[in-house]
Design goal:
The protein is mainly alpha-helical. It contains twelve helices and three strands. 41% of the residues are buried.
């Protein structure tokens, strides 16, 4: 391919992305919010069923009870923060596994591994920091945006010519990659920053001290340094001193939310504070 054609195709792809965006591309290609959430729910059921058959689903341990208590306390705020126009059926499964991992599928289907709680000796507030982070990935539809980007990548390959298509096969596989929700791949830096910011707000609204988010990533870095194998959560959620600094910079904004929530009465049924600040819409990039 000539340099001119490469530049032309890059400009065309950039123009398309600017005009309609990755999320709209996904909608136009049949990967709208309803469809992705429904597909995720089916996949989630299969994952849970398989784990259950292996005795890996944990419903009774102290760790499982703590994780579910944090989830139930944060869930009302995740429900309020949903601006997709499609209600999420939030669910969480605690998996008995030594992995340091947690994830959320489209539509609010979540998993939390006992390893991350027990090996890092997480407090409830630190569990909430990870929980809010993963909830925000789902609320911001990062998997959907990634799907749109993959479709655009396929389009770029088509523009690049049949020979390149034949050699790489990527354009043919582009739509097939949509079924991969990105649970084993890193999100972009902007998506990670958005998940950090949204997670801080969710945990603060639920009455958990957002300073715990800093401690979580410090513990993850320490655990990563002690092991020859990169922790799963670290490999899919890249960490750095700059990331921690960004979280610290957000603390003055979310700490008053936490302080207000901590003073509010608690709903005995859901565990949610009833007088916490109103959820602010998460800004999307």
């Amino acid at each position: 391919m000539t340099t001119f054609n490469k530049v032309k195709n890059a400009l065309l792809l950039t123009t398309i992305t600017t005009l309609v965006g990755c999320t709209t591309i996904a909608d136009m290609s049949g990967y709208d919010t309803n469809s992705m959430n429904a597909d995720a729910a089916k996949n989630y059921s299969q994952v849970v069923s398989s784990a259950n058959s292996q005795g890996a689903v944990d419903n009774t341990s102290t760790t499982a009870i703590r994780v579910k208590r944090v989830f139930n306390r944060m869930k009302p705020y995740a429900v309020r923060a949903n601006t997709t126009g499609v209600p999420f059926d939030w669910q969480i499964t605690v998996l008995r596994s030594p992995e340091l991992n947690a994830w959320a599928m489209p539509g609010g289907k979540m998993a939390f591994y006992t390893g991350i709680v027990e090996k890092l000796q997480l407090t409830d507030a630190e569990i909430a920091a990870i929980m809010g982070h993963e909830m925000t990935h789902a609320l911001a539809e990062h998997s959907k945006k990634d799907a749109g980007q993959k479709i655009l990548t396929g389009l770029a390959l088509q523009l690049g010519g049949a020979e390149l298509q034949a050699k790489t096969g990527l354009s043919d596989d582009a739509l097939g990659l949509i079924s991969d929700y990105g649970l084993d791949k890193p999100f972009s830096r902007s998506q990670e920053s958005q998940a950090d910011a949204g997670g801080l707000r969710l945990m603060a609204q639920a009455g958990y001290n957002p300073e715990a988010a800093v401690a979580v990533w410090q513990k993850m870095e320490a655990a990563n340094g002690r092991s020859n194998t990169i922790a799963t959560l670290m490999s899919t959620h890249p960490n750095s001193g700059q990331r921690i600094a960004k979280i610290q910079a957000l603390l003055p904004e979310v700490t008053p939310v936490y302080q207000a929530a901590a003073k509010a009465p608690t709903n005995a049924t859901s565990g949610a504070t009833t007088g916490a600040a109103v959820t602010r819409t998460i800004k999307r990039k």
